[in-house]
Amino acid sequence: MTESRDISIQVPVLTRVEGEGALELDIHQGRIEALRLRIYEPPRLFEKFLEGRAPDEVIDMVARICGICPAAYQMTAVQALEALFGVRVDPWVAAMRRVFYCAEWL
To answer: Which residue range(s) make up the domain with 33?
Structure first.
């Protein structure tokens, strides 16, 4: 027998996210009826100070966007530059990047 219950979760302040946000989740009879993620911070437009920069400068500069998660920003910048220049990495490199990224959570 499966248990069916109603759950309502409200997280008025999300921590460990850049800016401010909230989460609301409503489950009725085991099904998600509503899921709302609200981000209150306006865009910070970091891309403007990256315009015209050399690729290696971009990778260093984005690491300073957040003091908690520099690797996430660096990996995103690297992947964007690779897409721009048509670079494809082999599976080992992709796996090692994932290890590097996940290590940031520790």
So the answer is: 7-39
Q: What are the pLDDT digits (tens) for 16-67?
A: 666 678 889 999 988 899 999 888 777 778 889 999 999 999 999 999 888 8
* pLDDT given at position 5: 82
Tokens 């865009």 belong to which residue? 43
Residues 30 and 51 grouped into a single domain: no
Residue 71 and residue 62 in contact, taking contact as beta carbons nearer than 8 Å? no
**Paired residues of 27 in beta bridges:** 7, 32
Q: For residues 64 and 92, state if they share a domain.
A: yes
pTM, rounded to two decimals: 0.61
Bridge partners of 35? 25
> Angle 55-62/70-85 helices, nearest 10 degrees?
160
Nearest to 6 by CA among 34, 40, 31: 31
CB atoms closer than 10 angstroms to residue 73: 19
Specify the amino acid at residue 2: T
> Does residue 16 sit in the same domain as residue 61?
no
